[in-house]
Amino acid sequence: MTSVTRAVPRSRKPPGLLPTGIPLTLLEADGQAVRSADLDMPGDEVLLALHRKMVLARRFDTQATALTRQGRLAVYPSARGQEAGEVGAVLALRPQDWLFPTYRDTMAVVCRGVDPVEALSLLRGDWHCGYDPYEYRVAPQCTPLATNTLHAVGLAHAAKLKGEDTVALVMLGDGATSEGDTHAALNFAAVWQAPVVFFVQNNGYAISVPLSKQSAAPSLAHKGIGYGVPAMLVDGNDVAAVYAAVQRAVISAAEGSGPTLIESLTYRIEAHTNADDATRYRGQDEVERWLARDPLTRIRQHLIARGLLDEPAVAALDAEAEAEAAALRQRMNTDTVPDPGDLFRHVYAEQTPALRWQQQELSAELAAAADDPEVSR
Amino acid sequence: MTAIAERGPGPPVTTPEVTMAAALNQALADALSEDETVLVFGEDVGPLGGVFRITDGLAARFGDARVFDTPLAESGIVGTAIGMAMNGLRPVVEMQFDAFAYPAFEQITSHLAKLRNRTRGRVALPVVIRIPYGGGIGGVEHHSDSSEAYYAHTAGLRVVTPATPGDAYALLRKAIESPDPVIFLEPKRRYWSKQATILDHAGATLDRAVVRRPGSEVTLIAYGGTLGTALEAADAAAEEGRSVEVIDLRSLSPFDDETVTASVRRTGRAIVVHEASRFCGYGAEVAARLSEQCFHYLEAPVLRVTGFDIPYPPPHLEDYHLPSVDRILDAIDRLQWQETRPAVKAGG
């Protein structure tokens, strides 16, 4: 070799940045445990907690879908089939960590402890965010795609600057990985070594557009190496693997090793929302194949096979979920009376004169309407 | 500039003359000194001190944890500033030029402006976005936009623009103290204009216009880069016997109806001056408000002296575009001086 060729910089292959080719798995589709060199099987208590929360999450989700049909919710983007990702990621967080969810992650928001009625405020149409983000350390659910990735990076970097032991986990979908903000967020997080976990739930579709039209990358997890962000590809219907992967990423971030990108391979069983017609872009046979890989069945089979769960325990859990759903139904079965004055109260810290006038205009309009027998009738 | 940069925090002192750039630098330095939650970041704001040197010396003085360069992505700068503000910090970020802020538009309009409202006031975002704006410096394309109308149209943002070094200091300090997000538009062609002034923000407010020059016959309403032009025009008009009042808006949102309408009700005539294009420009809002609130006091239609409805011109043509003293004087001449009442139309 000549010195000239040696002078050409060689591409470095940093260790540990590439994901495995096959999704990391701890439980096979039939519930059988498998060994993994990368992930530790969670303890029995954790597995039972994951199963319980998944039962509650699924029942919440089907209840929310039903509330949409009854006109109690304006819209509901179901995450049915993604319970392992929604629950596994949230339970792997510590109390001091932050969750940055999207509109599809209401299960995750509720799993984090947010009151379900408060969580559904957005979709009910009462207010954009019905809960106090600081009380639960859950950011408002993000409806523009990928913008929350940067908020998570900023919050995490601020925590690092302040010397706080806080990790931010941001949820995003396969479609959101095409957005520029995802690119910027991965890059900023890597440069700053911010304590962030990027949790990409690849559920196969961005509304109607399949992954094949979204990305030509070998996997979405492969995008990490371009930023210098270590990545993992996990079986997103294996709650044990999701939990273990997120926990590993959270510990790594908390220890100062910076961000991790996790792609969680899963499937959106329902349409994008109740307003969507999934039969226009995918076949029922595909849905059936994924129903056979149900994440809840998988963990349940595992727990039953190991004697950690039995039929009476499952029945009791189902009854608990049913009671929660009934309570939610009952609480949502009322017509809320939003205060039009709220429209003007929180635009600025202190109301501007122009907003004060506009609020008075609306009040006068409403008062006149109330006094007008034609209108009130 | 040196004398000012060396001044530490403490009581305000009189300075002989200070440029707007130095006043902004001092405001950032004083805010960083007084409040440890203040951060300054953006593109090239670290060791370089920004392309206009507004952050000169700050990284060395306050360290690269508080004053730092970011990767080159405006959406990333604003998006991460939002997250930092959620976690108790007060980011002051720089967009390098007006037109380069557009990648951050979604973060600004969908998140920065709305998060307080979305959360019923639970999440405040005290973020300041500094944007050098406007033309007149011979910049090549995309370096001279006046983008104020985009931001002023967005509820939840405060939009502020100083026209003098003294205001640059006071308004930036107040912007950093504000619990609301502030778009802080710096008229780049006035960065090097000087003023003998005390740099102080005690008693300053963020949302009030100011009468820069009293007059009785016409109100010129200007802001940022065009204030100086309006003042020159007022001086020239005075030589011709016209008494012209000049208002510096300072706060584009919220709009100070009180100060502006009080002036126009006295003078009965008004002209809005800005560099930005006329169509749907900021002047349209001012003219509409004056029409709504001062109609019976007006002796003539409210006129606008603005840039043309064209993309910002190349440097050798920008003087044709920018509002000039002559154009303002021409507009003053068109304010129906011959008629004390609106003309009665033929047949009407």
Write up this protein.
The complex is a heterodimer of chains A (377) and B (348). Chain A has 377 residues and is an alpha/beta fold. Chain A has two domains: 13-332, Rossmann fold; 342-376. Chain A is 45% helix and 8% strand. Chain A has 16 helices and seven strands. Chain A has helices at 3-7, 44-69, 83-91, 106-111, 116-119, 121-124, 133-136, 147-162, 180-192, 239-254, 284-291, 295-305, 311-332, 342-345, 353-371, 373-376; strands at residues 98-100, 168-173, 196-202, 205-206, 209-210, 231-235, 260-265. In chain A, the strands form two sheets. A five-stranded parallel sheet of chain A has the order 1-2-3-7-6, with helices on both faces. A two-stranded antiparallel sheet of chain A has the order 4-5. In chain A, helix 2 (44-69) crosses helix 3, helix 2 (44-69) packs antiparallel against helix 12 (295-305) and helix 3 (83-91) runs parallel beside helix 10. Residues 1-14 of chain A have low confidence and may be disordered. By secondary structure, chain B is α/β, with parallel strands linked by helices. Chain B folds into two domains: 2-8 and 16-195, Thiamin diphosphate (ThDP)-binding fold, Pyr/PP domains (Rossmann fold, 3-Layer(aba) Sandwich); 210-333, Rossmann fold. Helices cover 34% and strands 18% of the residues of chain B. Chain B has helices at 2-5, 20-34, 58-62, 74-86, 105-112, 115-118, 148-152, 165-177, 227-239, 257-267, 282-294, 318-321, 325-333, and strands spanning 18-19, 38-42, 67-69, 90-94, 128-133, 158-160, 182-187, 194-195, 210-213, 218-222, 244-248, 251-253, 270-277, 303-307. In chain B, the strands form three sheets. In chain B, strands 3-2-4-5-7-6-12 form a seven-stranded mixed sheet, with helices on both faces. Chain B has a five-stranded mixed sheet with strand order 9-11-10-13-14, sandwiched between helices. In chain B, 55% of the residues are buried. The A-B interface holds A 127-129, 132-134, 139-140, 144, 147, 149-159, 161-162, 166, 168, 180-181, 183-185, 187-188, 191, 342, 345-349, 352-354 and B 39, 65, 70-71, 73, 75-76, 78-89, 103, 106-107, 110-111, 114-124, 155-156, 158, 178-180, 207, 254-255, 257-258.
